[in-house]
Amino acid sequence: MKRVTGIGGIFFKCKDPGKMKDWYKTHLGFDVTEYGVMFNWKQEDETKEGYTLWSPFAENTKYFEPSAKDFMINYRVDNLEALVEELKKEGVTVLDNIESYDYGKFVHILDIEGNKIELWEP
Hints:
- The protein has a single domain, classed as 2,3-Dihydroxybiphenyl 1,2-Dioxygenase, domain 1, CATH 3.10.180.10.
- It has a 7-stranded mixed β-sheet.
- The protein is about 20% helix and about 40% strand.
- About 15% of the residues are buried.
- The protein has 2 helices and 7 strands.
- By secondary structure, it is an alpha/beta fold.
C-alpha cells in the first residue's frame, strides 16, 4: 500500500491572516481565496488534477493543538481507512476519528516530536 502520495496543504500561524494573504497576493501574485491558495497540478497518471493548499491561520488558532508548533502539514493519501489501521498497529498516535466532507476524508496524527499532521484522502 502506498501511504503518502503528496502534500495536500501547508498551514501556518500568523498575526493577521488577512494581511498575510494580501501581502502574498500583492508581492507574489497568489490567487487568494478565503481558504488560502490552491496550487493546481496533474497527478502522476495525468488524467486527474490535484492541488496543494497554502493557508495562513490566526496565531491563536487551536486547530494545530495538541502540537505547540506554528505550522501543520497536510499529506494526501490513497486509502485513509487502511492507512489509519496500519498506523495504529505501528503505535502511531491517532488524534481523532476519520471525518468525511464533500472534498475528502481527514484524520490527524502526531509524529515522534508531537507535530500534528493532517492526512487527507481527496
